[in-house]
Design a protein that fits this description.
Blueprint: H1 2-22, H2 35-55, E1 59-62, E2 66-71, E3 74-79, E4 83-87, E5 94-99, E6 104-111, H3 116-134
């Protein structure tokens, strides 16, 4: 995904730069283009390219202590004890964390378009979660057993 965003940003910057250079500084009869317009279009291309690069900032880092992820803007961190499972369904566009309080958090950095790489990342996250859950102490028995 990062590579795709970088490629798209480069294309936008190059195209907008070529458009800026190709603007004639003569009058068309209605609108007169000048150097200021050329600089504005080139600047707009840089801003659009930076925005596209910004979309590729998603990231996931995990270790034995917990998981840290950044989805475009906000960065989050959770210990493994707060995570129930790592989900990545066939119909999902990205992986997600199912938390113990039944919330679901998307991990935009693990995209379905990454295919095998995404599957490997999910398996690695599941292995870290399983190792962390194996080290958790067993909960005490319920005082009042539930009747089913």
């Amino acid at each position: 995904m990062r590579l795709l965003c970088a490629l798209a940003a480069a294309v936008v910057v190059v195209v907008m730069g070529l458009v800026a250079l190709s603007l004639q500084s003569n009058s068309t009869g209605v609108v007169e283009f000048g150097p200021v317009d050329q600089v504005a279009i080139a600047g707009l291309g840089l801003v659009l390219g930076a925005g596209i690069l910004f979309l590729g900032r998603s990231r996931v880092d995990a270790d034995a202590d917990g998981i840290r992820w950044r989805n475009v803007v906000l960065q989050h961190e959770l210990p493994w004890s707060a995570v129930r499972s790592v989900a990545f369904d066939r119909k999902s566009s990205w992986a997600s964390l199912i938390l113990r309080n039944d919330d679901e958090v998307a991990l935009f950095a693990v995209q379905a378009v990454d295919k095998e790489r995404a599957a490997q990342a999910v398996e690695a996250l599941r292995a870290l979660l399983a190792a962390a859950q194996a080290q958790e102490p067993t909960p005490p028995p319920l005082l009042y057993p539930t009747r089913e």
